Amino acid sequence: MSVPTRVIPCLDVSGGRVVKGVNFLDLRDAGDPVELAALYYAQGADEITFLDVTATVDERATTYEVVTRTAEQVFIPLTVGGGVRSTEDVARLQGCGADKVGVNSAAIARPELLGEIADRFGAQALVLSLDIKRSERIASGFVVTTHGGRTETDLDALAWAREAIERGAGELLVNSIDADGTKQGFDLELIRAVRDLSSVPVIASGGAGKAADFAPAVDAGADAVLAASVFHNRELTIGEVKAAMAAEGVAVR
Predict the structure, then answer these.
(1) Which catalytic residues are annotated (predicted)?
(2) What is the pTM of this model?
């Protein structure tokens, strides 16, 4: 029997509000994170991902109070990322109700962080968040970015994903900066490239615009599909996405 594909709404949060833009730019207010999380839980979301998109840029910790209130409203796995720099940050987030943490910039700055988190909390609690752009100067054609997509590194995204898994990452959140917010569909080439090297679950993110966009991401190798704009703008419900996926033969809960 196939493992059901997870449908995950993403709450990009800044200043205690959900925000959304295009290619990580021109962020606009999209609502209250607690209210939206409760709505998506009621609609049948399999998980909720909560990303404090300005925590690293502002050099601060994530908004613990919002995480706590969100965890009180939803009873499905909650992943929290943004500003996670130490195992103590992870412990505090778990105390607020997070089930998993996402790390990106801090792990690039100090890769040992991945092993420290995995050793203390288990690989299942550690999600490597990959904000990826296409780049002709990188061997694979994909480069890792940090600080909410604002800063390009010299890291080959595929090489970094492989190293992160070896260091203990239990899941890869693969976000295409180029596709983000465009509603033109997921970057299927990127998903396939990561799937080919990954021994852990892959979450596809960036580009969903219609219900028909999700099944191709699964066919390309995604274990879970993540979206934001189409849910925040009430263009699609979780149920509509699952129905469209099921119609294409994708197993869903």
Answers:
(1) 12, 131
(2) 0.92
Which stretch of DSSP H or E encloses residue 131? strand 126-134
Q: What's the domain range around 234?
A: 6-248
Question: Does 110 score more than 60 pLDDT?
Answer: yes
Q: How far is CA 124 from CA 19, 70, 168, 173, in A?
A: 28, 21, 9, 13
CB 35 within 8 A of CB 74: no
What's the CATH code of the domain at 180?
A: 3.20.20.70
Report how many domains make up the chain.
1
Top pLDDT among 114 and 182 is at 114
Q: Is 213 a catalytic residue?
A: no
Q: What is the mean pLDDT of the chain?
A: 90
> Are 117 and 104 contacting, i.e. CB atoms less than 8 angstroms apart?
no
For β-strands 48-52 and 25-31, DSSP reports them as: unpaired
Residue 32 is assigned to a structural domain of this protein: yes
| Active-site residue (options: 46, 52, 131, 187) | 131
- Give domain status of residue 1, yes or no: no
Is 131 known to be catalytic? yes
